[in-house]
Amino acid sequence: MKRYFGRKLLVYILTFVLAVTIDWMIPRFMPGDPISILISRFGPRQGGYEALQGYFTSAFGLDVPIWQQYLNFWRALFQGDLGISIYVFPTPVIDVIMRAIPYDIALLLPAILLSWLAGNNFGAIAARSKRLDDTILPLGYILTATPYMWLAILLGWFFGIVLGIFPIAGAFDQSIPAPSFSWLFISSFLVHWFLPFISLFLVQFGGWAIGMRNMIIYELEADYSHYLEALGAPTRLVRRYAFNNAVLPQITGLALQLGVVVAGALVTEVVFSYPGIGYLILQAIQNQDYFLLQGCFLFIIFGVLLANFLIDVAYVLVDPRTRMGMQGEVG
Amino acid sequence: MGLQVENLTVYYQTLRGSVQALEDATFSIADGEIMGLAGESGCGKSTLSNSLVRLVPPLKLIRGRVILDDQELPVADVERMNAYRFRQLSVVPQYAMNAMNPTRKIGRMTSELLRSKRVDYRAALPEIKRRLDLVKLPQEVLKMYPIELSGGMKQRMVMVLSTLLNPSLLIADEITSALDVSTQKAVAEMLVEFRNREFVKSIIVITHDISILYQIADSIMIMYAGQLAEKASTETIIHSPEHPYTKMLIASLPEVGVRYADTRLTGIPGKPPLLLDPPVGCRFRHRCPVAFEKCVEAPPFLEIAKDHFVACWEVFRKYA
What we know:
The structure holds two protein chains of two kinds. By secondary structure, chain A is mainly α. Chain A is 77% helix and 0% strand. In chain A, helix 5 (93-127) crosses helix 8 (183-220), helix 10 (235-259) runs antiparallel to helix 13 and helix 13 packs across helix 14 (320-330). Chain B has one domain (3-88, 167-254, 266-319): P-loop containing nucleotide triphosphate hydrolases (Rossmann fold), CATH 3.40.50.
């Protein structure tokens, strides 16, 4: 057990170091120069440009050799310092991200969890009802094959423009100065939240339902199901066992999805101009914001690794076969 | 008492028509009898066992009755059969190695299964433990997952599980096929032990391994291409069979002490017929050395001597 987790931990640390290194490299090898973009926003006069460039380059630590930048990056990372954003200069990156994260969580957590629950239950029911299997399941195939942004655009067009029920941009009404716990804000937030939520929910629902249906059919054809049936066990018991076993791979899928909660849903957020991390990533790329981009990716790395680690732990608890494998490794 | 099967005819419904896998099977098994059911692949052994245990599509009951302990079993009614399964009629399946839910501890699975049959697990526990001792399984297996057991242990566990409610009839389907020879013998002897202790009244042992049957079976029934060929005591089938197919089948078995370097082991020339469109009459007649005109009619399964049943016109002519 100890050795199992020890080895796992080592792999996670290695992955982390590698991922962070790549994260540091990506923006630096992108074409373009963030400092000149920043300066061009100030629109300085002739001569002032050079002065500003020298100032900003050293202020952002871009004047030292590349290996020095890399080491500085790691040092800053351990101090929780992700640098200053260029896009929303001079706000620290960590603040920009922290401001965006609540929107991601509010949008993605319900979308992922509810679609998982609903999809799995629906898939399990569809697997044993011929009529549902023939009618609604094909819809699931269409849904899961639908690109997020396309469905988002369709929904936005229909509900936002044709029917005019839901707003199609932002997380709350522009007339509200700042988020607060007032009824006005909450209602405005929910109305803005609905379309991005439902577009994410629908696509993921289709995927979960299909996966679960196939798994259930597989499990109901497994030998242990046939044995229970041969002993005249009630259908309820057979189905319960099949469901419990079929849900195992779905748990992995869920955990991986939860890992990217902090990553936001880039395309959906872009379509609805929803101010989550996904939207930030787009802005960071467009503005050559090294530090913001790095920060966003870093959160994604953390999220994915943490989720994977939790799956490893959860599997040991849920599936005895993994525990056996573990003993095998030690022995 | 015991099992009576009358004119049991079961077909597989396929897109290309009915596969006539079991045709007019009529036989009985007495209480306390261990009957071996043998024949080559595709002869209908498993169809017969499935018809008794779980007759679901593509299997279809065409006609026939199954009577167990003077009660007719509703074999074609999957739901109503549930009341008889496990209690009156049980099975040790071919896939006994994978028969237990991999994610449940064996004890928990047993208790859930028993509860679904309205049997109290706590009350049954002492008996379960006694039977585990009998098959030389440690009582700790109840706290283990199936994956922690070896193949042979899983097999024994399933045997204990299947016979827990003391069914009248146990069907053991190819249970020795996946085991090595020494384990085979132990498992076979366990079946006899279960019968002797009256955990089960009678047993059908399905196998294509006649040597196992010779060790444990009281009687052997031979099937060919969906029809019953011969049923008699084990001694009779092995030493003085009457049906030409049985004779050739027994003759093709190697004998201990005989060297086959000089004499070739004989087989049966030809192939069994396809059951999608089987020949009328006796299905063995195209491979049969003694076939004559009469064989285009299906021979009945008649008792030519006490407890010796044969379906062959040539044999009837001899005994007439």
